[in-house]
Write a structure and sequence with these properties.
The protein is α/β, with parallel strands linked by helices and about 250 residues long. The chain has one domain: Rossmann fold (3-Layer(aba) Sandwich), CATH 3.40.50. The chain is built from seven helices and seven strands; from the N terminus they run βαββαβαβαβαααβ. The chain has helices at about 15-25, 60-75, 100-125, 145-165, 195, 200-205, 215-230; strands at about 5-10, 30-35, 50-55, 80, 130-135, 170-180, 240. The chain has a seven-stranded parallel beta sheet, with helices on both faces. α3 (about 100-125) links the parallel β4 (about 80) and β5 (about 130-135). α1 (about 15-25) crosses α7 (about 215-230), α2 (about 60-75) packs parallel to α3 and α3 (about 100-125) runs parallel beside α4. The longest helix has 26 residues, at about 100-125. The radius of gyration is 17 Å and the shape is globular. The two termini are about 35 Å apart. The relative contact order is 0.15. Bound molecules: nicotinamide-adenine-dinucleotide (NAD). Nicotinamide-adenine-dinucleotide binds near residues 12, 85, 182 and 185. This is 3-oxoacyl-[acyl-carrier protein] reductase. GO terms for molecular function: 3-oxoacyl-[acyl-carrier-protein] reductase (NADPH) activity. Its EC number is 1.1.1.100. It is an enzyme of class 1 (oxidoreductase).
Length: about 250
C-alpha cells in the first residue's frame, strides 16, 4: 500500500472526483479527511480511517480551524488535494456579472491560497508534504463563454508553480493536475443554459477527446495517488494532463 499511515486532506470530497480520490487513498492505507460544503456526498463513506468535515471554502476561519484540528488529532498532514470547485455555464462576457466573477474566483482560486497556506504552515515543521491542485484542460484549450472559470484555473496553475519553487527547500511538493471532460455531475453544467435545456449529450464532450472516451474519476484518482506518493518524490511544479489528449 502506497500511502500507509499518511494523513491527507481532500477538498470537494463529496463530488464525483472527490469520492473516488478518497476511496483510492483509503484503499492505499491512508487516513483521509474529506472537506465539502455539504456532508451529503460523503455520508456513504463509512471507512474507519475517514473523517468528514462540512466547510465552506470561502470561510478562512473554518479552514484554519479544521487544519488545526487535523494536525492536533493525527500529529501530521502529509498531503492536500484541492478538488473543490464550481462550473460556469457558457456565457458571453457582457452577460457575466461581477458577483459571479467574485464568487468563482473565491471558490476556485482563493480557496487554494487559503488551504495551501494552512497546509504549508504545518508541513514546514515535519518531513515535507505533497499538494495537488486541480485545474482544467480548458487552461490549455479554452472554449468560448468560460472566461471566468478558465481565469480561476489559470490562477491555480500559476499559483501552484510559484508555491512549488517557494517551498521546495522544505521538501514540500506542489503539482497541478488538469482533467479533461470527466464523467461527473459538473460536466453538464458547462454548456450554456440554452444548450442545457436542449439536452446537449455527453457524446458531444466525448467527441472532443482524442482517445475517444470521457475521463473517469478513477483516472483522476490514480494520477493523484501517484503525485502524492513517494514514487513522485522528485516531481514538483509539474502540470499533469489527464485529458485523453484533449489538450493536444
Ligand atoms: N468534471 C469535469 O469535466 C472537470 C473537467 C476539468 C476540471 N474539473 C475540475 O475538477 C474538480 C472536481 O470536479 P468534479 O467533476 O468532481 O465536480 P463535482 O461538482 O462533482 O465536485 C465539486 C465539489 O466541490 C464542492 N464545493 C463547491 N463549492 C464549495 C465550497 N464553497 N466549499 C467547499 N466545497 C465546495 C461541491 O459541493 C462538490 O462536492 C473541480 O475543481 C473542477 O473544476 C472538472
Amino acid at each position: 500500500m502506497k500511502q500507509q499511515e499518511k494523513v491527507f486532506i481532500v477538498t470537494g470530497a463529496g463530488g464525483g472526483m472527490g469520492n473516488e480520490v478518497v476511496s483510492t487513498l483509503l484503499s492505499e492505507g491512508a487516513i483521509v479527511v474529506g472537506i465539502d460544503i455539504s456532508l451529503e456526498g460523503m455520508t456513504h463513506i463509512t471507512h474507519e480511517n475517514f473523517q468528514k468535515e462540512e466547510v465552506n471554502l470561502l470561510d478562512s476561519n473554518r479552514i484554519k480551524e479544521v487544519f488545526k484540528q487535523v494536525f492536533e488529532t493525527y500529529g501530521k498532514i502529509n498531503g492536500l488535494v484541492n478538488l473543490a470547485g464550481i462550473a460556469q455555464p457558457s456565457t458571453p462576457i457582457q452577460d457575466v456579472s461581477l458577483d459571479f466573477w467574485n464568487k468563482i474566483i473565491g471558490i476556485n482560486a482563493t480557496s487554494i491560497f487559503l488551504t495551501c497556506k494552512e497546509a504549508v504552515s504545518y508541513m514546514k515543521n515535519q518531513e515535507g508534504g505533497a499538494i495537488v491542485n486541480v485545474g482544467s484542460v480548458s487552461v490549455a484549450r479554452p472554449r468560448p463563454g468560460l472566461q471566468a472559470y478558465i481565469a480561476t484555473k489559470g490562477a491555480v496553475e500559476a499559483f501552484s508553480k510559484a508555491l512549488a519553487i517557494e517551498v521546495a527547500q522544505d521538501k514540500i511538493r506542489v503539482n497541478v493536475l488538469h482533467p479533461g471532460p470527466a464523467e461527473t455531475q459538473m460536466l453538464v453544467q458547462f454548456p450554456s443554459e440554452k444548450d442545457q435545456e436542449n439536452g446537449l449529450t455527453l457524446d458531444d464532450f466525448k467527441m472532443s477527446v482524442p482517445l475517444g472516451e470521457l475521463i473517469k474519476p478513477t483516472d483522476i484518482a490514480e494520477a493523484i495517488n501517484y503525485l502524492l506518493s513517494d514514487g513522485a518524490k522528485m516531481v514538483t511544479g509539474a502540470t499533469l494532463h489527464v485529458d485523453g489528449g484533449r489538450s493536444l
